[in-house]
C-alpha cells in the first residue's frame, strides 16, 4: 500500500524533520508502519531496538545529552505497555520526550481487534499531554501541542504521548491545513525574573554567613551564570545527579565530599532548578536546621515542593542568576570565607583519600576485585570530554562518587535501574566523537542487556563495563544483617562477555587486577565493547550501610530518619 505524501504519516514525519529531529528510537509494528516508512522517506534515522522500554530510555538520553527533543515510536497494545516504564522515568526526570504510537483502525475500535487498548488512559497521569488523534485534519495541531508540552513551553517539561488509529495515519490532511505555523519549531521563551524578588534574594544571600547552592535539572544550560554567582558570592556548592558536570570539580566552591556537614550547617540554601526530594531529605529542618531557602526555578514544581522559600523566583535559571549578580553590583558578600575554605579543604582531603583508597582497595577474601579498583581504573582511562552513565544499586553507590565527567547520567530520582545500556547507546550515537562509558552492576545490566544487539547493529561506540558480583548486593546485605537469611537475591556469575560476543560486540571477561587496564584499552579501541569484570560481593557500599534497602518510614536514610523523628518529637535543638 502506497502512503500519500499528504497522509497524516507523511505530514507528521515532515513536521518532525522541520523541527530538527534527526533520529527516532523505535520498534516496528503494523499499527505504525505507515509512519515508520514515512520517517525513513524523510531521511530520519530509525534506531530500531529490541524492547520499547529501551526506545523511550534512549529518547530520554538523547534529549539529555543534546538539549533537544527525544522521540520514540512504539506499536500498539503490548508495544505501548512495554514503554510505560520509560515514560514514567522521563516524567519524574522531567525530560522532553515525545512518544508516538498507533492504535486499531477506527472501524475496529472497541470490537476486540488486535492489540486494541485505550493507551491514553494508561499514561495520562505520567505525561504532560496524552491524546488519540482520530481526525486527520487535526494531526498537525495536536502534534504541535504535544511537542510544546514536552519542551515545557508554559509548564513543566516532560513526556508527551500521542497516537493515531492506523487508518488515520493513512488518511489525508487537506493541503490548506498543512500550515507552516504548526510545522516549524518555535523559539523558546525564557521567563524573566521579577526585579523586586531579585533584590530580595540579593539582600538575603549577601547578608548570610553560610550560603549553600544546590543545582538541578532546571539549571542545565546556566553553567556560566552559576559559576559567576559562586565566584561573586563565595558560596559553597553541592552537585546532584541532575546537573553533574555543570560546575567543574576543580572549582573552589565544590564541597560534595562534605555533603552531610554543609547541609546541616548552612544558614541560607539557594536551590536552582532543583526539587527538594528524597535525595535532599525533602528539605526538612531535621537536616537543614533553621536555614532559609531561596528558590529559583522555571516551573512551579521546582519552586515550592516540600519547603517554601523566603524568596521564590519563577524564572529561567540563567536569567535569574545573571540578574542577581548584576543587582549585587560591588556589594561585599557576607559569606564567611574561612567557613567556605575549611569545607573546600575538607572536600579536597576526602577526595584525595578516596582516590588513594580506590586505587589500593584490597581484593575480597574470595580473591575477586574490589569495585573501587574497577572505578579507579575507568576514571584513569577516560578523558575530560567523556560521557559517563552510571547504573545499578550497590555498584552505583561506588560509581557515583568515584567517577566524574562533564556529562553524567544515572537512574535519576525515579531510581529507574536498567537505564545504563540504552542511555549509553543513545549518548554514543549522539556524540560519536566522545568516549561514552556505561558503568553498571550486573543486576541492572540484565534489564536491557539484549540492547547490546542494538549497539552492534547500529555501530554505537559505547563501552559497557559490568561489575559482576553475582547478586542484588544491597538486598543481600540487608537480608543478612536484618533477617539472618538470604532469599531470592543471589545471581549467577554469568559470562556477560560471551553474551556480548554472541551479539556481535567486542567482549572480554576480567578476573585479575593485572588484566584490567589492558582490557579497558582494548575495549576502548574496539567499541561497541563490553567488559565483564568479576568483583567481590564482600565489598559493602555506603547505600547498603545506610538502611536504603529497608525503606525507613520518614526519610530515605536511617540517620536522617532518626533525626526526623527527634525533630518531630521536639527533641532537636533546631526545632
Describe the structure.
With 575 residues, this protein is an alpha/beta fold. The chain has 25 helices and 17 strands. The protein has a 6-stranded parallel beta sheet, sandwiched between helices. Strands 13-12-14-15-17-16 form a 6-stranded parallel beta sheet, sandwiched between helices. α11 (223-233) packs parallel to α14 and α16 packs parallel to α17.
Which features characterize this protein?
single chain; 575 residues; alpha/beta; six-stranded parallel sheet; 25 helices; 17 strands; 41% helix
Helix/strand class: alpha/beta
Instruction: Give the strand tally.
Output: 17
Mean pLDDT value = 93
Helix content: 40-55%
Shape assignment: globular
The biggest sheet, with number of strands, parallel, antiparallel or mixed sense and barrel status, is: 6 strands, parallel
Strand order of the largest sheet: 2-1-3-4-6-5
Total count of helical runs of at least 4 residues: 25
Strand-residue proportion: 5-15%
The low-confidence runs, each spanning 5 or more residues with pLDDT under 50, are none
- End-to-end distance: 71 Å
What is the gyration radius calculated from CA atoms?
25 Å
- The oligomerization state is single chain
Structure at a glance:
Helix content is 41%, strand content 15%. It is built from 25 helices and 17 strands.
Amino acid at each position: 500500500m502506497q502512503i500519500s505524501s499528504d497522509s497524516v504519516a507523511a505530514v507528521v514525519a515532515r513536521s518532525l524533520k522541520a523541527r530538527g529531529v534527526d533520529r527516532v528510537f523505535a520498534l516496528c509494528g503494523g499499527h505504525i508502519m505507515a509512519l515508520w516508512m514515512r520517517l525513513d522517506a524523510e531521511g530520519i534515522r530509525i534506531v530500531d531496538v529490541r524492547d520499547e522500554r529501551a526506545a523511550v530510555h534512549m529518547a530520554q538520553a538523547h534529549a539529555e545529552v543534546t538539549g533537544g527533543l527525544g522521540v520514540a515510536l512504539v506499536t500498539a497494545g503490548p508495544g505501548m505497555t512495554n514503554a510505560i516504564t520509560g515514560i514514567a522515568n522521563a516524567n519524574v526526570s522531567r525530560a522532553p520526550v515525545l512518544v508516538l504510537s498507533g492504535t486499531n483502525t477506527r472501524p475496529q475500535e472497541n470490537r476486540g481487534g488486535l492489540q486494541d487498548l485505550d493507551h491514553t488512559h494508561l499514561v495520562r497521569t505520567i505525561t504532560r499531554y496524552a491524546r488519540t488523534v482520530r481526525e486527520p485534519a487535526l494531526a498537525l495541531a495536536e502534534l504541535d501541542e504535544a511537542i510544546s508540552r514536552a519542551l515545557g513551553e508554559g509548564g513543566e517539561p516532560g513526556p508527551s504521548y500521542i497516537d493515531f488509529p492506523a487508518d488515520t495515519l493513512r488518511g489525508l490532511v487537506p493541503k490548506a491545513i498543512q500550515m507552516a505555523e504548526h510545522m516549524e519549531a518555535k523559539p523558546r521563551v525564557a521567563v524573566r525574573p521579577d526585579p523586586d524578588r531579585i533584590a530580595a534574594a540579593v539582600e538575603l544571600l549577601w547578608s548570610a554567613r553560610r550560603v549553600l547552592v544546590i543545582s538541578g535539572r532546571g539549571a542545565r544550560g546556566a553553567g556560566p551564570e552559576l559559576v559567576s554567582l559562586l565566584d561573586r558570592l563565595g558560596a559553597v556548592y553541592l552537585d546532584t545527579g541532575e546537573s553533574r558536570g555543570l560546575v567543574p570539580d576543580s572549582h573552589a566552591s565544590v564541597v560534595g565530599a562534605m555533603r552531610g556537614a554543609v547541609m546541616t550547617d548552612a544558614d541560607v540554601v539557594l536551590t536552582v532548578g532543583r526539587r527538594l526530594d528524597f535525595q535532599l531529605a525533602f528539605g526538612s529542618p531535621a537536616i537543614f536546621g533553621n536555614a532559609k531557602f531561596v528558590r529559583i526555578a522555571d516551573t512551579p514544581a521546582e519552586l515550592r515542593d516540600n519547603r517554601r522559600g523566603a524568596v521564590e523566583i519563577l524564572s529561567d535559571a540563567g536569567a535569574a542568576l545573571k540578574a542577581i549578580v548584576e543587582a549585587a553590583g560591588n556589594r561585599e558578600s557576607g559569606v564567611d570565607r574561612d567557613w567556605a575554605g575549611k569545607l573546600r579543604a575538607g572536600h579536597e582531603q576526602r577526595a584525595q583519600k578516596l582516590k588513594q583508597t580506590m586505587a589500593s582497595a584490597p581484593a575480597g577474601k574470595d580473591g575477586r576485585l574490589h569495585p573501587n579498583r574497577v572505578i579507579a581504573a575507568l576514571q584513569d582511562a577516560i578523558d575530560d570530554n567523556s560521557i559517563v552513565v552510571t547504573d545499578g544499586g550497590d555498584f552505583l553507590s561506588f560509581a557515583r562518587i568515584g567517577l566524574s565527567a562533564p556529562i553524567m547520567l544515572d537512574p535519576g530520582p525515579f531510581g529507574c535501574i536498567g537505564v545504563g545500556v540504552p542511555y549509553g547507546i543513545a549518548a554514543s550515537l549522539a556524540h560519536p566523537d566522545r568516549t561514552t562509558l556505561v558503568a553498571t552492576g550486573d543486576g541492572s545490566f540484565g534489564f536491557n542487556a539484549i540492547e547490546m544487539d542494538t549497539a552492534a547493529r547500529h555501530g554505537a561506540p559505547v563501552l559497557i563495563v559490568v561489575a559482576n558480583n553475582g547478586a542484588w548486593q544491597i538486598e543481600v546485605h540487608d537480608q543478612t544483617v536484618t533477617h539472618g537469611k538470604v532469599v531470592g537475591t543471589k545471581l549467577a556469575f554469568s559470562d556477560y562477555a560471551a553474551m556480548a560476543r554472541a551479539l556481535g560486540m567486542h567482549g572480554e571477561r576480567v578476573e585479575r587486577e593485572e588484566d584490567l587496564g589492558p582490557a579497558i584499552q582494548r575495549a576502548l579501541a574496539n567499541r561497541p565493547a563490553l567488559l565483564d569484570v568479576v568483583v567481590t560481593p564482600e565489598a559493602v557500599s555506603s547505600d547498603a550501610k545506610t538502611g536504603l534497602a529497608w525503606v525507613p518510614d520518614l526519610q530515605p536514610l536511617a540517620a536522617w530518619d532518626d533525626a526526623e523523628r527527634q525533630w518531630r518529637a521536639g527533641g532537636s535543638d533546631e526545632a
